[in-house]
Amino acid sequence: MATDLTVSVADSPGGLASVGEALGAAGINIEGLLGIGLEGRGIIHVCVQDGAAARTALEGAGLTVDGEDDAILGPPVEGADQPGTMGPMARQVADAGINVRAVYLGTNSRVVMVTDDNAKLMDLMANM
Questions:
Q1: Strand pairing of 100-105 and 64-73?
Q2: Which of 24, 47, 73, 106 is the most buried (most CB within 10 A)?
Q3: What are the residues whose beta carbons fall under 8 Å from the beta carbon of 100, sequence distance 6 or more?
Q4: Cα 104 from chain centroid (whole Å)
Q5: pLDDT at 79 (0 to 100)
Q6: Per-residue pLDDT, 103
Q7: Is 45 exposed, middle or buried (0-12, 13-18, 19+ CB in 10 A)?
Q8: Contact 3, 51 (CB under 8 A)
């Protein structure tokens, strides 16, 4: 299972670069990425396959890892570049009673999701 790490950086030029440099130097591929500026700091969600190694690399570079969650890194989404794809998929997740805590796009049109019930989401995805 993939891992979603939440990293806090200064809300200034270079924060994102520091994350990329730390993971790249450790040979860790970024499967998905979301970054936002919020209340004077940068919040970066990064999806990786080896959460422990990524945490070690990030903290070794002096970065703060605020959170670590199991994440679902789905297969490529057919029609991801077409209007109207997300709504029906998100409706199926909602109708199954799954609360999405984080969602962002990954490489190759994949979706990264952190939910309150990843096992239920995986079952749902198997039947989509």
A1: unpaired
A2: 47
A3: 90, 93, 113, 114, 115
A4: 6
A5: 80
A6: 93
A7: buried
A8: yes
Cα torsion for 34, 126, 79, 51, to the nearest 10°? 20
This prediction has a pTM of 0.90
Q: Chunked in runs of 10, what are the mean pLDDT values of the chain (128 residues)?
A: 95 93 98 93 96 98 96 87 88 95 92 93 86
Q: How far apart are CA 64 and CA 8, in angstroms?
A: 6
Q: Which residues contact 96 (CB under 8 A, 6 or more apart)?
A: 120, 121, 124
| Residue 44 host element (H or E) | strand 41-48
Separation of CA 89 from chain center: 18
pLDDT (0 to 100) of residue 77: 84
For residue 50, give both structure tokens.
């080896």
